[in-house]
Amino acid sequence: MNCYNCGALLTETDFCTGCGADVRHYKKIIALSNMYYNDGLEKARVRDLSGAVRSLTECLKLNKFNIDARNLLGLVYFEVGETVNALSEWVLSKNLRAEKNIADDYIEAVQNNPTQLENLNQAIRKYNQALAYCQQGSLDLAVIQLKKVLSINPRFLRAHQLLALLYIQAEDWEKAKRELNKCGRIDVRNTTTLRYMKEVDAATVEDESKGAHRSRKSEDVIKYQSGNETIIQPVNVQEPKKSLAFLVYLLVGAAAGLAVALTLIMPARMQSLRTQLNEESRTVGEQLEKRNAELNELQTQVADLEARNAELESELDGFAGADGTLQTIESLLNAAYIYLDTPEDIESLAQALETIDAESMASDTVSEAYRNLYDKLLELAGPQISEACQESGNAAYRDGDYDTAVAELERAFSYDETNSDALLLLGDAYRRNGDSRNATRIYEQVMELFPNTENARRAENALEELEG
Fold it and tell me: Are residues 356 and 463 in the same domain?
């Protein structure tokens, strides 16, 4: 462990032996960060990937320079199909440690396989389309789209979970359980998966209990086929002896029973049915409200996920695009190499520096170390490049090629803003080229930036000649 202040190797004491800084709390923070990293590593080994993400995120909150934790977090994201998040972590890791970083291999493995990269991008686009179908209420189309997503990227955990949720919505419990089992094989302790599985298990138990009740009722009768008819006969029922007295008693009993039913039983029965109907209506209303609330929550989640997806895709384009951060950093490193290897090759160095996007260097995605390197290169090589561009512009000026002279002299002044000779000659080139407006602007700039100098006096004379 090194000191955060001077970089010296720390000992067992609570202060740095190099600079005397108090490192007691710093050691505790690093130890806690390492503990979270070890916990995340153990969880990743047993495929508790959501738990690993939480532990590794806490680790990086305490120590953002923990390269191993950041690389492992990227691997976990990649394993659950979150390619954009994975690449973001690896690119940040590479910015924090440019040399001897396995994140280089991970990024190359993705970028050097165009087919795989296109498949991953296509899976993300189709997943977003499935979310849009869910918002529109086209659940069947969403199911079809999610199946295509999983055929491209079978490890896309969120796609499995959304497909399972759609099966739950359709009460297709077997398919929902099959998708959730796939989720469990990817991430064994994902809370969303476990919550969905609990709902499926509860619904399955309820269906089984209803089936058992129907089975018990069917055992009270005997069914058999007689010709084209199905005969249903109660069991354990003795048939009464057929006689005239039995028929009389039967009719009297039926009449008495009907009278009792009409006067006593039927009103109570009707009231019971009304109560039952009201209770069932209330239950259905509550279930409908619950389903609507769940659907609203799902739509909110879909919108949040879609927005997050678009944001991460934009960040990925910013990192890996033709004018992105990675390309800017590579151009900067190439310019630094040219300056160290062949400092006399001024033209190649200037061309390398001009390929660097200055706006990207000023963005938050580029570390301070890279910005310092860029500024230092301009400070060291700028005057030499300016002098070379001035000579080239002067030669073009003498040959009467004023367009080339203007371009070279503008480059000369952009690399060294103290080069008053180049700026004055730029004004002369504009004047000779017939561009009085720009010539006036440049002469005034010479007088403003370099007052009380010979070049300022010459600019003033030239301006008087131009206006006269």
Answer: yes
Nearest to 176 by CA among 188, 161, 194, 195: 161
CA separation, residue 440 to residues 120, 424, 431, 465 (Å): 56, 11, 8, 11
Domain that holds residue 431: 342-467
- pLDDT per residue as tens digits for the range 156-178: 999 999 999 999 998 899 999 99
Stated pTM of the model: 0.45
**Domain check: are 202 and 133 in the same one?**
yes
Tell me the C-alpha distance between 301 and 293, whole Å.
Answer: 12
205 belongs to a structural domain: yes
pLDDT digits 0-9 by tens, 119-157: 888 999 999 999 999 999 989 999 999 999 999 999 999
Q: Flag whether pLDDT at 290 surpasses 70.
A: yes
Q: Is the dihedral of CA 41, 117, 311, 168 positive or negative?
A: negative
Q: How many residues does the chain have?
A: 468
| 94 lies in the same domain as 168 | no
Query: Which two structure tokens, joined as six digits, stand for 42?
Result: 């153990």
Say if strands 229-234 and 221-226 run parallel, antiparallel, or are unpaired: antiparallel
Give the three-state DSSP class for 221: strand
Please answer whether residues 78 and 63 qualify as being in contact, where contact means their C-beta atoms are separated by less than 8 angstroms.
no
Q: Is residue 38 part of a domain?
A: yes
Domain count, the chain: 3
Q: Categorize the per-residue pLDDT at 217 as very low, low, confident or very high, splitting at 50, 70 and 90.
A: very low
Show which of 178, 211, 244 is a domain's final residue. 211
Do 349 and 406 fall within a single domain? yes
Of 211, 244, 274, which closes a domain?
A: 211
| Residue 386 and residue 412 in contact, taking contact as beta carbons nearer than 8 Å | yes
Q: Token digits for 382?
A: 């700028």
Cβ neighbours of 382 (radius 10 Å): 19
Residue owning tokens 């039927």: 266
Q: Which of the four pLDDT bands, split at 50, 70 and 90, describes residue 386? A: confident
Distance CA 414, CA 382 (A): 9
- Could you give the C-alpha distances from 352 to 27, 48, 343, 407, 450, in angstroms and in order? 43, 47, 12, 17, 30
Looking up residue 137, the CATH number of its domain turns out to be 1.25.40.10
